[in-house]
Structures are given as structure tokens and as C-alpha cells.
Design brief:
The complex is a heterodimer of chains A (about 325) and B (about 350). With about 325 residues, chain A is an alpha/beta fold. Chain A has eleven helices and 14 strands. In chain A, helix 8 crosses helix 11. Chain A is globular. Chain B is an alpha/beta fold and about 350 residues long. In chain B, the strands form two sheets. Chain B has a five-stranded parallel β-sheet with strand order 1-2-3-7-6, with helices on both faces. Chain B has a two-stranded antiparallel ribbon with strand order 4-5. In chain B, strand 2, helix 7 and strand 3 form a beta-alpha-beta unit. Chain B is globular and about 70 Å long. The chains are: A alpha/beta (about 325), B alpha/beta (about 350). Chains A and B meet through helix 3, helix 4 and helix 5 of A and helix 5, helix 6 and helix 7 of B.
């Protein structure tokens, strides 16, 4: 097993490189993705190696980045669109919802909408407004789309390749605050299917589910909880839509207690969906209601106070205490 | 009113006029073919309006008045070209070989599309204004990467010309020199919205600001539309980049069968355009210049009648789809929520469960 240590940013870069080497129809398109290598350097060096026809520096228009990728998909190309920041995806929302999500259906299966829309999402980098949002629920609520998120360099490396190979359109959410964190990457085999959830830490008292940036926070909470005598089982959803519920059900049947963590506000969120699905499927195993730890229902705050908005170890541990406090 | 820059090769009276840049290259037989196309599509369109009035269609978007714009452009296309239409491009669909009954599947509300887009090289209809124009530019960028000698033609109206997607498409096509022809049918009305609040300048002038040529053509003159379209497509195929064609025409009927144009426009305006009918002027040319006999026109009328009857039969035979088909092609790959939905529907017994 060949493993190597790299940052999530580098893992994404290597994953994209490998996908482009394997399939000449794979293109990259986005703002500043060519010479600059993207504002986060995810596409660093790719234009130099694959040329301007395959790594396309786009004019600054998100609807066009996605809208032209649709036409390229009809022509048989697989375009990886980079949206520079979460808060800039909304100009492309119409194309994503009205065309990307629906053209396979509208064409009676004749068109394959094989394209990937990469969105650096969530906060934690001290940015100005529109650079820290969690728009995943909008896309998860749209039939025809799939939404995934990586939380480790290894997943980043493999999930981006799996997304590019997949025949449905994928919204690929990258936790930008984890871009520079290193981890082991297995270059030989994928850790799991693209739509599988993964148990990151085994435990017995409470199942804590999250995705993207939240995983690291949850794992730190699990360390603290363990020191205090509470055993958390940590599940990485990985696929936000569809959710892979079997792994979650299995965990909850063991622990009977559920906490879901996300940066998005909790109304009509992925966390809401997880709690609803698991309440229905695990009703007789539950020893407490499922609890969400989320961002507050406010526009993403000025980032000098973002750490009081984003789920923290303390807020997760408070939620753990709440679900542990129910008599059973 | 129309302006001196309008390309016209045939007057409303059916007399040829010279133009410094364009001349008709079509033979009498080919012009008769265009007459036949326009007559048939008008008859099919009228039949569709009747079908809607009789409760057999959910909606219909008539093209009456725009036959020359669509047939002229549609016949200028080569088989290998690709087209991105709205919901009103029945004349283009006809030229691409889409069976008429397939065009009505959307309006019968039994499909969201209706035909095999790759087979006819005619995309499924886009209902959201302007979306397809960006998709067309992307397809054209694919042609460039394949090194193919093909062009894309995409259709939109004066209403959609205000959409950001259309203007972004102009930027991209220009910057990447994409082989795409933007064919705007300016039929003067976006439901009740007049041209005067869509643009302060003629629409074709916009192209110059984006860095590519724009041409305004008499959209009711099929000979001119054909030549202008052909030149733009030929240029696109060999690296000449995009062209905007503004086909200046008029929507003789309602926006759709749900619309009532008497609430917002005056009869006198419609009367003016009646004298510019696209079919009558070609018929006049064929009679006077090519001595086409009445019997040949009667043959076309009879052929159109037969096709209209067949269309009616085909539409009436279009049954409500099995509800379980709503799950087909929602995704290309297996999806748990699709499986769950299918299973529930079969358990409820609302479907034959053939899938």
C-alpha cells in the first residue's frame, strides 16, 4: 500500500491530475484556475501540464461556468467547475437547478450530465462576507443532484476522482478551513464508495454525525468526552445527498443517542434530515431525541465572531450532555 | 419603422429586392420546399391550438407569423450542426426531423422533453428564459475541442434578450470565438412586455458591443433569413466565431393559449403585420416568377391537412404515462430515494410496477 502525507489542497490537486490523465474528456473551468492555480491553489500547475483548452480560465460569470459545462456535457465532456467561494454559487443556481439537475430526465436519459461543481464551503478562515457559507441544503433538496463532502485528504483525493467518473452531476463541497491540514493518502485504493458514510471513531454512548469541517471538531470533542468517561461514536456522512443511512442506523442502534453537527443553520438542513430519517428508522433504539448542533439562524457573522457561530467542542459536548441526560 | 439596415430579399408583396451583401441562392424548387415547410408547420400549429381549446393539450405556444424566421434558419442548418431551442421552435424542430407528435408531448403534459435530442441534433426545449443560450455556447466549445467542422444555433426571443444568461453567453462566445449563431426572434412582445422596455437600441446592435457581428434580417422573409443564417453558420464552422441574428418578426397570435393579447396591444398593429405575412409573399413569388400552378399549392394544402389529422390522432392516442415512469432517468445511476419511491408506488398499487 503506497501512502503519502499531503494536505487536502494537494490531495485534491493530485486527484484532479489523475482524473485528467485517465480521461481526455475531463476539463477544468473556473475563475483564476489556470495561471494562478485557483485562489486556493487547488488547480495549481494543471493548466501548464494539460493546456489552456483543458484548464479554462473563465470570464467572471458563475452562471456561464455552469451553463457552458452543461453544453460540454451534452457534447461528451466532463467538466469540473470551480466556484471560487460558496457565496458566489448563487448566480449559477438557476443553471444548476433548472438544467444540470433536470436535463437527464428531460432528455429521457439521452443526455448524461456528468459534471462536478466544486465549492469551497463552510467558514473558519477569517474571511469577509460571502466567503464562509454552507449552501449544501439548497442542492440536497433538488432532485437530480448529488452532494458530497470530504473531510480528510484521503477522501479528497478519492472522492474527487469518483465524482468525476460518476454519471450524475455532483456538488462537491470542500471544507476550505481544512485545505492546509495534512493526512495520509492511500494512492492505490479508494477508502469507500463515493456515497458511503464512514465511522471515524468507534464508541458506545452517543453517535455524533457530521461532515466537512465539523469532523475534526467532533473528533476533538470525542477525545474530551472520553477523558470524562463518555464514549462517542463519530460518523462522517461523506455523502450529504443521498445520505447513506445504513451506517448511521447501525451506529444508532448501538448507542441509542444522536447528535448531528453542521455549520449551516439548522432549519431545513442536512442535520434536520438526518434526525428525521433516523428517528423513523431507529425509533425503538432511541433513548433520547436527536439533537442538532448548528450555526445560528443569522446571516454568517463577521468573522471576528465566527467561532461563536460555528459548532465548537464545547457546544458539541453540551449536546452530548443533553442526550445523555434523558432517563431511559 | 423597420430601418434601413434590415436585410430583405423579398418584399411583403413578393417582389425581389437587391441587397448589397446578400443574394438568394435558392432554386425555384428549393423555394417551393420552404413554402411547403411553412404551410405545413402553420397548419400543424393551428391544429395544436385547436387541440388545446378542446382540452387535449395543457398549453400551446403558437408560432403564427414566425414561420419564415424558423424555416429559413432551420433549412440553413447542416445535418451535423446542433440546435438549442426554447418551447416555441416548432419550425426548427420540423426542419431537424422531429416527428410532430413528439413536439406535442411537452404540451400534452406527458413528457418534459419529447424527442431524442442526440438523434435529431435538436436539444430538448428550455422553458427557463435564456438558459439554453449558455448551454449552446458550451456545446460549441466542445466542437472546438473536437476540432469538428460543426456549428451550433441557439434560439431565444426579444424577452429573453434581457436575461443575464444570454448576455453572459455573448461574452463567452466572443472571448472563446465559439462556433455559435445566436438566433433571436424579435416578435415584438414578451407576453405583454413590449420591445420598447427590453432595449433602447436595436437588439442586433448589442453584438457589436460584445465584439462580434450582428445582423437584422426581415424575419418574415424566408429567403433573407435563409441566406443570413447560412452565412453565419458557414463562418462559425470554419473559425469565424459567433454571429447574432435578429429576425425582425411578429407574434401574430397569443404568447400561449393561456394569454389574451387584446388586453395589451391594439388591433391596428396586428393588421399592419398581416400584410407582411411570410407565406403569402413566397406564394406570390412562386406564382409570378416560377409560374407554379394552383394545383401544386393545393397539393401542399392537402398534405398539410393529412398531417394535421394524423397529428390529432397521435395526440389523442397519447395516454397518461404510467406514474412509475416519473422515477425513470431522474438519475443516471441507482439512487436510494428513487428505489424507495418506486417501492412505495408499487405497494400503493397505483402502478403496474413494470420497472
Amino acid at each position: 500500500m503506497a501512502t503519502t502525507t499531503m494536505t487536502m489542497a494537494k490531495a485534491l490537486n493530485e486527484g484532479l491530475r489523475r482524473a485528467m490523465e485517465k480521461n481526455k474528456k475531463v476539463l477544468i473551468m473556473g475563475e483564476d484556475v489556470g495561471k494562478l492555480g485557483g485562489v486556493f491553489r487547488i488547480t495549481d500547475g494543471l493548466q501548464k501540464d494539460f493546456g489552456e483548452d483543458r484548464v479554462i480560465d473563465a470570464p467572471l460569470a458563475e452562471s456561464a461556468i455552469v451553463g457552458t459545462a452543461v453544453g460540454l456535457a451534452i457534447r461528451g465532456y466532463r467538466t469540473v467547475c470551480e466556484i471560487q467561494f460558496d457565496g458566489f454559487v448563487y448566480p449559477a443556481f438557476d443553471q444548476i437547478v433548472s438544467q444540470v439537475a433536470k436535463l437527464h430526465k428531460r432528455s429521457d436519459g439521452v443526455y448524461t450530465m456528468g459534471l462536478v461543481i466544486r465549492i469551497p464551503f463552510q467558514g473558519g478562515i477569517g474571511a469577509i462576507e460571502h466567503h464562509s457559507e454552507s449552501p449544501e441544503a439548497y442542492f440536497a433538496a433538488t432532485a437530480g443532484l448529488r452532494v458530497v463532502s470530504c473531510s480528510t485528504p484521503n477522501d479528497a483525493y478519492w472522492m474527487i476522482q469518483q465524482s468525476i467518473e460518476h454519471d450524475d452531476p455532483i456538488i462537491f463541497c470542500e471544507p476550505k478551513c481544512r485545505y492546509w491540514e495534512k493526512g495520509e493518502v492511500d494512492l492505490d485504493s479508494a477508502p469507500a464508495g463515493l456515497f458511503d458514510a464512514a465511522v471515524r471513531r468507534e464508541g458506545s454512548d452517543v453517535t455524533v454525525i457530521g461532515y466537512g469541517s465539523s469532523l475534526k471538531t467532533i473528533l476533538r470533542a470525542a477525545d474530551t468526552a472520553a477523558a470524562e468517561g463518555t464514549s462517542l461514536e463519530v460518523v462522517d456522512a461523506r455523502s450529504i445527498a443521498p445520505l447513506e443511512l445504513d451506517t448511521m442506523v447501525k451506529s444508532l442502534e448501538k448507542t441509542g443517542r444522536l447528535v448531528v453537527v453542521q455549520e449551516a443553520p439548522h432549519t431545513a438542513s442536512i442535520g434536520s434530515e438526518i434526525v428525521a430519517e433516523l428517528s423513523e428508522r431507529c425509533f425503538y433504539s432511541l433513548r433520547a431525541p436527536g439533537v442538532r448542533v448548528s450555526g445560528y439562524h443569522v446571516p454568517y457573522p463577521p468573522t471576528r465572531i465566527e467561532e461563536d457561530y460555528r459548532p465548537t467542542v464545547d457546544r458539541i459536548l453540551d449536546a452530548v450532555d443533553r442526550v445523555m441526560g434523558y432517563e431511559s | 419603422m423597420i430601418g434601413e439596415e434590415l436585410v430583405q430579399l423579398l418584399t411583403p408583396e413578393g417582389e425581389r429586392v437587391a441587397h448589397p451583401e446578400y443574394e438568394s441562392t435558392l432554386s425555384g424548387a428549393e423555394i417551393f420546399g420552404l413554402y411547403r415547410d411553412m404551410t405545413i408547420i402553420r397548419r400543424l400549429c393551428n391544429e395544436s391550438t385547436s387541440l388545446q381549446r378542446q382540452g387535449q393539450l395543457a398549453l400551446w405556444a403558437p408560432i403564427q407569423g414566425q414561420e419564415a424566421a424558423q424555416i429559413g434558419a432551420g433549412r440553413a442548418l447542416d445535418p451535423q450542426d446542433f440546435t438549442f431551442p426554447t418551447y416555441r421552435e416548432h419550425g426548427i424542430a420540423w426542419c431537424r426531423g422531429v416527428p410532430p407528435e413528439n413536439m406535442l408531448r411537452l404540451f400534452r403534459a406527458v413528457s418534459n422533453g419529447g424527442w431524442d435530442a442526440q438523434k435529431y441534433r435538436h436539444s430538448v426545449p428550455a422553458v427557463v428564459l435564456g438558459n439554453q443560450v449558455l448551454n449552446a455556447v458550451g456545446y460549441a466549445m466542445g466542437i472546438q475541442r473536437d476540432g469538428a467542422e460543426e456549428a451550433v444555433m441557439t434560439f431565444f426571443g426579444d424577452g429573453a434578450s434581457s436575461q443575464g444568461d444570454v448576455l453572459e453567453a455573448f461574452v463567452w462566445a466572443s472571448s472563446f470565438n465559439a462556433p455559435v449563431v445566436f438566433f433571436c426572434q424579435n416578435n415584438q412582445w414578451g407576453i405583454s412586455t413590449p420591445m420598447s422596455i427590453q432595449s433602447k437600441i436595436p437588439l442586433y446592435h448589442r453584438a457589436h458591443g460584445f465584439g462580434f457581428p450582428g445582423v437584422r434580417v426581415d424575419g418574415n422573409d424566408v429567403l433573407a433569413v435563409y441566406e443570413v443564417s447560412k452565412r453565419a453558420l458557414d463562418s462559425a464552422r470554419v473559425g469565424g466565431g459567433p454571429t447574432l441574428i435578429e429576425a425582425y418578426t411578429y407574434r401574430m397570435g397569443a404568447h400561449t393559449t393561456s394569454d389574451d393579447p387584446t388586453r395589451y396591444r391594439i388591433d391596428a398593429e396586428v393588421e399592419v403585420w398581416k400584410h407582411r405575412d411570410p407565406i403569402e409573399r413566397v406564394k406570390s413569388l412562386l406564382v409570378h416568377e416560377y409560374r407554379v400552378k394552383a394545383a401544386k399549392f393545393d397539393d401542399v394544402t392537402a398534405e398539410a391537412e393529412t398531417m394535421a389529422l394524423k397529428l390529432r390522432e397521435d395526440v389523442l392516442a397519447m395516454d397518461r404515462p404510467d406514474p412509475i415512469t416519473m422515477f425513470d432517468h431522474a438519475y443516471a445511476a441507482p439512487h436510494p430515494l428513487i428505489d424507495e419511491g418506486r417501492r412505495e408506488m408499487i405497494e400503493l398499487g397505483v402502478s403496474g410496477g413494470s420497472h
